Amino acid sequence: MFRNKYYLKFVLLGFLFCLQLNAQTAINFPLISDENNATLRIDKRDAKVVSIAAEMLIDDIFKVTQKKLVTDTKNNPYQIIAGTLGQSKLIDQFVSKHKIDVSKVSGKWETYTIQVIENPSKEIKKALVIIGSDRRATAFGLLELSRMIGVSPWEWWADAVPTKKEELVIPIVTTTYGSPSVKYRGIFLNDEDWGLQRWAALNFEPETGDIGPKTYAKVFELLLRLRANTIWPAMHKCTKAFYHYPKNKEVADDYAIVIGSSHAEPMLCNINAEWNHESMGEYRYDTNAEVIKDLFKKRAKETQNFDGIYTVGMRGEHDSPMIVGEDNTDAQVSLLEQVIADQRAILNKYSKNGVDKPQAFVPYKEVLHYYQSGLKLPEDITLVWTDDNYGYMRQLSNPDEQSRSGGAGVYYHTSYWGRPHDYLWLNSTNPVLMWEEMSKAYEFKSQDLWILNCGDIKPHEYSIELFLDMAWNMNDFKKNKDISKHQTSWASREFGAENATSISNLMHSYYTLAFKRRPEFMAWSQVEPVTKSNPTEFTQYHYGDEVSQRIGAYQNLINDVTTLKSKISKEDQDAFYQLIYYPVIGAANLNHKWLYAYKNKFLASQGRQSALYFAEKSALAYESIIEETTYFNKTLKNGKWDHIMSMAPRHLPVFSKPSYAAPTQNNIPELGLALESYQMEANNSVINSYADVLPVFNSYTKNSYFLDIFLKGNGELIWEAKPKADWIKISKVEGKLNKNNLEERLWVTIDWDKVPKGEAKKEAPLGHDYQLIPPSYKVNSAIDLISNDTVITIGVSVFNPKLEVLNTYKGFIEDKGFVSINAENYSRKTDGNEAKWEIYSGLGYSDNVSVALPRTAKSQITIENIVKNSPVLEYDFYTFNFGDVNVNIQAVPTHAFFKDRGVRCAVSIDNAEPVLLDFQTFGRSENWKKNVLKNATIQVGKQVVNKAGKHTLKIWMVDPGVMIDQILIDLGGWKNSYAFPQETKM
Length: 986
What we know:
By secondary structure, the chain is an alpha/beta fold.
């Protein structure tokens, strides 16, 4: 009831927007009412996809109302009349008789109009007319009505149940939809071995024992609902080739879906499944061209009467480079040019009425090198640019390439098998990153073909829809904030407006955490070759303990998604489980499994009995993944999705149960103590040692630090914490350790109103060769940790100078030998002659990045031009030390737009000559591997801070599009950590 009210309000607001936009009055059209059910009329001679879409609409309306549209009468006062212009006699007559203006539709690509005509005849009171420019447009128009009545595109694929209604009266404003932003739009079914293929073969289509025509019909239905028109079919060796089953291409034609193929499948041929070495010889064009051409001819002949996009060129088998006799680039380029010429001759021979077939060239991996090395490509072939498999476009069309008649496209991944590591289980690609990269591609005229490698569809539902919505109408995604709007709107449609904001916020946190490290990368292992799990790069003893912080963040996600689940209506529970709950719980538990295991090993090395507790927590997380995946496959929808979900694609080490460590056993209970910033446990004060000191508390950053007290051995002990100064605050001052409470984390803070002012005195610098030793301004005290006869004394040192110069200071400040800054928090910015810095939200470690726009601005090469023409960000910071410093700039690891561009910025402190920093990586270098695993790239500029006091860091754009995330000015104090420490701001 509640959801229904909000959903109708949402729909009406959308139509009111259309009303404003078109300055027209909406006309209410009753699809289903107490008095009458509308008639749906189509021309049976229209394309098969029109009748398919009509049946889908009838079924959708029945699911909403339990009532059916009428299809067997012409005398109904309310009629839906749908058809393709020039292909439907019914529509052509209606257009002619009622003088309907079809100029915005006629001759266009996939364009349709929906309008209501009142009293078109004596028998008809209102006609809802859907006119498509082609067969797909008409189908999209019919399914637009399904969208209007609240039927999700994921009605079948994610069991999204539409809200039930007694009547369906929809307000219609005359609107033309299309032409789409991208001509061919679709998905690539890939890495299907552990999900889609097994599900189809063992559950949905056992009569075929494979992904066959029945499965593809369901996939094509989804594509129609998402206004897509293209598919690259599944092509792994576990799946027979798409054209192995003759019915597949017929079903594709019925649904008006265009068949294409990947970079490794020339001419719609699946080399993995179709090349037989015994009968066909070696797959080498330089020695076996005639046999290879025979396969190309066979496929061209059998597909000449069907829609297809033919990938030209050639790679080797199993996603490998092409084999040639001469191992040099010129020979490879020459042979590839011959391959393309032969393929085009074959296509010309077998094209219907001599019409050229659409052709695509995918410069993927080594083929990009061949293209960059001078390969001559006929200009009517579509250039399909690729990402680096981890979401970052490798290259895009330069101004000359943008004028090619064949145009350009994009092949993009949200799922990948390969080095440095697979991510085949969950969907963890940040939506804002995908938008940023796709909008960049669109801006540089990649508008002819967009293909998303979505693995085996589940659980990539949201990314698929976002990708295809952008491809349909990029005008809806002009601004960074449009992604958040889309996600909230999507959640509202699926789960009601009352839950939309909570779901959107939850998924925002999910993607932010995954951006810092995808769940599948949490074992710090790699593939090709497969390596064992390795120690984590997250620190457990610096900067608040990164491991515990990430554990807490994922526990918050578990709590939030569990609370949300209890608020979701019964009919929406299955969809919520698939679209939200399982991905969130899966990611959280895979993280917890490894994070608790890392904590177990670290704590065992300190002799903590609590190490066993964390081993148990890790094992429970592992068991939870098994339990949830079993439910997904066996119980959800009574086993509808059995075999669709694997929790361990390729059975890589990251998916296994970790090994655990045990602490040394001791029957005598002892008090253990560990401090932030120390890897080993603290000393006993029997020797009156003050060597164990918490990191310095800074009055300008108001730090807090942790102390871990823990039980060593078995038994029980009582502990007490006694600060030696009244300005030292501890979160807990006494307690008991036993088998039920093995450790406690205490947080130490300072009462800054009570701490005395520090006096200037000189002491040793922070491990750094400074020109002068700065005054310390420290106030020292301690905390005694007491248990039985054991006293451990921990030093507390407070930096509290109370400098007048800082009384009104608002900038960043040195803390423990470094200054940490989030790039969006600049003190000032100045626009350049052609470009400026803008903020993109929802991306980066800080959740906001500074990006240099527009992308069409000129790169500034010389230092003189950089300073004169480029936009600049300025950051005020204050230091207490001085000397040589490292300016660490963390950026999002994008690539240059074009071959002759870079990904650069320039930095300087206090008007020193700017230093250029270049974030570009090439091929599959070790730097690139590290960058894509972290979704971050760091470059270091050497600078000098010549005195204690105020300074200014400047960052100039060198190349447009560079995205700056975080900044760390290191004066020698930064310790090892995965991410930069939190901002050191006043």
